[in-house]
Amino acid sequence: xxxxxxxxxxxxxxxxxxxxxxxxxxxxxxxxxxxxxxxxxxxxxxxxxxxxxxxxxxxxxxxxxxxxxxxxxxxxxxxx
Length: 80
What we know:
By secondary structure, the protein is α+β, with helices and mostly antiparallel strands. It has helices at about 25-30, 55-70, and strands spanning about 15, 20-25, 40-45, 50-55.
């Protein structure tokens, strides 16, 4: 059974570690997504929290999404 085909939901506790907070992720989840301890991930927070593997393709896709959002919803200086 592949993790990517079936959504998995599990309650996790955030743990204080110095001046940071750590989320412990099950090893099975990491392995199922081609990740291991020490890998870098992209963290996207926009109402929901999403992690993606740090790849050139994912970085480009996120940049394009942000650019599209900025051009379709430009920040207006009117009324300021």
